[in-house]
Amino acid sequence: MLMGALRTDQVLKDSKASDAASVSSLKLNHKALSNVSCLRDFRNLQRLDLGFNSLTSLEDLKPCVNLKWLSVVQNKLKTLKGVEALFNLTVLNAGKNKLTSMDEVQSLVGLRALILNDNEITSICKLDQIKELNTLVLSRNPITNIGNSLLKVKSLTKVSLSNCQLEAIDSSLKSCVELKELRLAHNNIKTLPAELAKNMKLQNLDLGNNLITRWSDVKVLKSLVNLRNLNLQGNPIAENEKLAKKIRKALPNLQIFNAKPVNRGSKNEERNIEAVDDFSFNQDVKEVKQKDSVQGKAKLKEQSLAKEKKSKSGDGAEGYILEKDRKRKRQKSQDDLPKKDSQAAGGGDEPVEKKEKRKSKGKVYSEIDVIDDPEAAFSELFQAEGGDDDDDRGGTKEEVINKNVKKSSFAGESVSFPPKKKKSKKMSFDPSVLGSSTIEVGMGGPSSWDD
């Protein structure tokens, strides 16, 4: 392919197609492209990846009105002019460019995910008309305030405004009643507004590296009863252990605080058990019971040895009979051991093959199902840099999520919770179309989402 200019014949050859109208998906990233005018012929394109090229304009894409997924991450775009014609867009990733405005997206009423991190955007345009928007990433832009841009966007579930220049959020998010995850790390925020109490569904909140000092600045957190993951590291308040304890006490359902599991006391404290969460607590109880059982067996063994010693020192015939009886019991115990071991390995009487077959019968989830899940964390939405295409296919929900989390490089992963699934009639989501930019994936410590 010629450097800079894209040719129709070469695209058709690479796609093993004879007609441009038959091509619905193209991956053209990392090709040093500056001219893609030939894409005007590919009017039936639905997915297009033009990430990591040298594009300065999107005007050539206007005829591609059937596009649903578009990635132009890391190009040389200063404007999104031309994208307004793509009224069927569902996902747009234009991160890591030189954009100063995002006004062109206002007409894209079908958008569900908008990623514009690492640009030069100074203000957020009104997104009132985008009724289905659930993911908004504006990290690393010189945005000083949110204003009224999100006042009517009730569908948002995930918002990132980390590494901006925000000094306050005021009442800007009060209408975002579906919000589950909010990233505001690395700003100049000093206090949380009372209106944040309206975001009752918040589960993950990252406020790391701001200027929060006092309890009164965050007392609204008491209203967020669903909060599971909270990060305040890098704030003056995080250095005060008494205030940290007060925050933990005010949030009884908190599971992760400042990137560490929350330890809570229990009735088993006399056994030195610390309950991190229900799962680990149950495991600790089990281990204690096992320990008690081992100690009991040791005691019985000690008594048995004492009895054996006593019998050997007594009558010869009686000692012989006792020794023979012990040998018989010991042999029976050894004969039963392999059977018990095999049952343990197979999980009781159920064969391993049957268990594996039963596990494999889960519903197959596509990546778009994860994006539509309002309780999925950002780390579950986008693959990390350098992902293989072969790994971007569907699977069970756990496989999809674990695959993306494993690819991330951030140590503190976000807590995710069982989703309330809704049937989606949309096409399955291919994360590669979003490009390879690393999206924020952690809650603890310095936020490094878009590094």
UniProtKB/TrEMBL annotation:
Q: Tell me the Pfam families matching this sequence.
A: LRR_8
Q: Which SUPFAM superfamilies match?
A: L domain-like (SSF52058)
What domain of life does the native source organism fall in? Eukaryota
Protein name per its UniProtKB record: Uncharacterized protein
Q: Which organism is it from?
A: Punica granatum (Pomegranate)
